[in-house]
Amino acid sequence: MLIQFGHILLILQVSWTGHNMGVYARLNANNIVEECIVASAEFMSKPSRGVSNPSEWVEVTDVSAGASGTVSIGSEYKPDEDAWVAHKPWESWVLDDTGLDWKAPVDKPADFQDKKYKWNEVKQVWEEQT
């Protein structure tokens, strides 16, 4: 599972023997992630100094993290789909038909998998990186 903290992307494997640990995301009133932590289910089940309102937190599972498996500060949680939408990468991008992933207003080049491209927001084009 991938969790993003600011510009740092962490690969987490939460499997401590004898401990029921998980990754949890704290949501605001609009279901936007404001904080991520690793904690035990017991810790999350009751108010404590670190978690004042357990109902604001959602456990992030491999299934709920979606195809990208990435949850970050600013991601949106869609409870009906049990899925996460990353924050909008560029102003011009729109959600795809699933409503769960962002796409550029211009399709990726046919050789996108073979070459490196970067989105140019000002020109609204994919530019090959050399």
* Main sheet: strands, sense, barrel: 3 strands, mixed
What fraction of the residues are assigned to beta strands by DSSP? 35-45%
Q: Any idea what the radius of gyration is?
A: 17 Å
Unreliable spans are 4-17
Q: Span between N and C termini?
A: 31 Å
Counted beta strands: 12
Reading the helices and strands in chain order gives EEEEHEEEEEEEE
Number of helices: 1
Label the structural class: mainly beta
What does this entry show, briefly?
This protein is mainly β.
Task: Explain what this protein looks like in three dimensions.
This protein has 130 residues and is mainly beta. The protein is 3% helix and 37% strand. The protein has one helix at residues 41-44, and strands at residues 2-5, 8-11, 21-27, 33-40, 57-60, 70-72, 76-78, 83-85, 94-95, 102-103, 117-120, 125-128.
Features:
three-stranded mixed sheet, about 5% helix, about 130 residues, 12 strands, 1 helix, elongated, single chain, about 35% strand, mainly beta, three-stranded antiparallel sheet
Topology:
Elements: E1 2-5, E2 8-11, E3 21-27, E4 33-40, H1 41-44, E5 57-60, E6 70-72, E7 76-78, E8 83-85, E9 94-95, E10 102-103, E11 117-120, E12 125-128
Parallel strand pairs: 1-6
Antiparallel strand pairs: 1-2, 3-4, 3-5, 7-8, 9-10, 11-12
